[in-house]
Task: inverse folding
């Protein structure tokens, strides 16, 4: 039991964590894919639909005003949660993927020309690779990669050389495969020194650790709601106001204009400029409730709990399985989050996760949308257990027991 | 509840532990097709040699889970020596067996295939391949079981184009 969070009380707030799977209490270890949602988030979304459902920024009637206020309150909450200087700098998107695509289409097409270089890291999720590859193909850009060593750490020995002619650095704040926490501020400083813009994919950071976009000195930060106790279908882009102000719209349509004539249109100010069409209002409201939930726990406490639990998991699994188990990524909790990619004996991750499922233990098997990184790690797939604020030592023990059973089952 | 023994029949584990016809063939004369499961990263290579309309050799390369590896291994033993038409017939029967559309998928703890179909005496003529019928109860794994077969299908098509 962690001294930092009352995990039993927290678990009780998540309806899904009360259920059984295959006759076992569920042990949910796939929060890296999506987190579970507390009752308060579900209630907030229900209340929105039951009491104030109306389109925003349109009607001059009570419930429309309430709905508008709820959306703008969520924007303010998210800005505060991210350490953003102003809520105007927060643009709602469908998810982090759309946030990155927004930057690629709008900022990228405006600012990058043939021969410019985009610097990525080998840790990136496909969401922070493919939009840049699309743009590179379209505009004749070069993509360069910061390599990763065998322990999942960025190899920064040649950073100065790699940064030559770089106009954009796009880096994850936390790997969804190895749990690696790259030195974002150090990278941002180095990139800014050569005049490059810095985008941080914070999808796997924001749910777990206190976030301060100004401490990173980032220019753009992409986040998603569903990994931080919020609903699916809602994410956000934070960007420095002067950058957003100078960017053309991404999607065209309703809400993103100041004026439309037969001849053309004038785009709205940010953030409305980037929020075309009716937004997922219930999801924005639900995200606000998720932020409220996390702020109630305190992100310092969440981070401390996860650090302790990750240390427990690393220690327990290593002691129990010895050489039969390889855990990808850095071996110390100072350099990593609670995302544990496991290579266990010769059991294929799909088979391992299938046996774990029989014990009610949910882990993800596959390439985790990070195929370039998997190539570096020398595997096609891993079984990934990812820890979150509602997990405890008993969950780790259940994982270990189920792994032992899988070992017996597949004894080759 | 569908248990592990429904999925991991002994014969499947046997093909996984001792895969048959693993390796490569020289291309040409053989043809080779590659298959990927984009969800899990599994990849498979099927080498196919056809002599006079008869499948004279099949070799399997690549890596994957027990289901994809054993299914490909069992596929190779099932089609070697068959005419192209005969192999296509097995392919069709296998794909029918793997089709989830014939079975209800209600309920997340359900038993979509139903024990009646799982234990049905081998009326389909698929022989050992019947052991893979249990995969249908685990819909996520169907793509694993069909990966080698779809890749074989691709190799057949490529070889008949030449």
Result:
């Amino acid at each position: 039991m962690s001294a930092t969070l009352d995990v039993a009380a927290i678990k009780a707030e998540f309806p899904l964590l009360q259920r059984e799977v295959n006759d076992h209490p569920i042990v949910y270890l796939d929060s890296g894919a999506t987190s579970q949602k507390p009752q308060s988030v579900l209630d907030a979304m229900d209340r929105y639909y039951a009491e104030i459902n109306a389109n925003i920024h349109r009607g001059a009637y009570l419930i429309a005003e309430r709905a508008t206020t709820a959306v703008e309150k969520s924007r303010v909450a998210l800005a505060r949660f991210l350490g953003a200087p102003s809520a105007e700098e927060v643009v709602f998107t469908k998810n982090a993927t759309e946030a990155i695509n927004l930057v690629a289409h709008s900022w990228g097409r405006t600012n990058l020309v043939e021969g410019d270089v985009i610097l990525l890291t080998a840790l990136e999720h496909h969401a922070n690779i493919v939009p840049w590859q699309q743009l590179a193909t379209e505009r004749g850009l070069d993509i360069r990669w910061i390599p990763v060593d065998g322990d999942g750490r960025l190899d920064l020995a040649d950073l100065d050389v790699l940064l030559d002619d770089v106009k954009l650095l796009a880096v994850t704040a936390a790997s969804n495969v190895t749990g690696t926490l790259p030195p974002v501020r150090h990278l941002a400083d180095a990139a800014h020194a050569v005049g490059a813009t810095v985008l941080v994919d914070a999808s796997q950071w924001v749910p777990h650790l206190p976030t301060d976009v100004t401490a990173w000195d980032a220019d753009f930060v992409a986040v998603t709601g569903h990994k931080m106790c919020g609903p699916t279908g809602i994410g956000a882009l934070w960007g420095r106001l002067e950058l957003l102000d100078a960017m053309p719209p991404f999607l065209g349509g309703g809400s993103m204009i100041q004026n439309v004539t037969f001849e053309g249109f004038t785009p709205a100010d940010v953030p409305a400029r980037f929020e075309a069409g009716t937004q997922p209002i219930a999801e924005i409201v639900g995200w606000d409730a998720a932020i409220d939930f996390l702020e109630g726990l305190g992100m310092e406490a969440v981070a401390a709990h996860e650090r302790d639990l990750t240390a427990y998991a690393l220690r327990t699994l290593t002691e129990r399985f010895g050489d039969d188990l390889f855990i990808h990524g850095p071996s110390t909790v100072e350099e990593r989050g609670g995302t544990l990619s496991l290579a266990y004996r010769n059991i294929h991750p799909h088979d391992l996760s299938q046996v774990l499922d029989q014990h009610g233990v949910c882990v993800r098997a596959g390439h985790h949308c990070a195929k370039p990184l998997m190539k570096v790690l020398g595997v096609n797939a891993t079984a990934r257990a990812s820890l979150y604020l509602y997990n405890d030592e008993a969950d780790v023990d259940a994982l270990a027991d189920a792994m032992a059973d899988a070992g017996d089952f597949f004894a080759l | 509840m569908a248990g592990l023994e429904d999925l991991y029949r002994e014969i499947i584990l046997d093909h996984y532990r001792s895969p048959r016809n693993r390796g490569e063939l020289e291309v040409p004369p053989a043809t080779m097709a590659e298959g990927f499961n984009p969800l899990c990263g599994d990849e498979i290579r099927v080498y196919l040699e056809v002599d006079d309309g008869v499948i004279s050799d099949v070799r399997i390369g690549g890596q994957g889970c027990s289901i994809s590896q054993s299914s490909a291994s069992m596929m190779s033993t099932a089609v070697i020596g068959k005419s192209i038409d005969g192999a296509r017939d097995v392919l069709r029967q296998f794909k029918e067996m793997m089709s989830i559309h014939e079975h209800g998928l209600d309920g997340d703890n359900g038993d979509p295939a139903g024990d009646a179909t799982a234990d049905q005496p081998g009326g389909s003529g698929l022989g050992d391949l019947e052991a893979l019928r249990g995969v249908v109860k685990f819909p996520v794994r169907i793509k694993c079981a069909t990966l080698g077969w779809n890749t074989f299908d691709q190799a057949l098509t490529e070889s008949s184009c030449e």
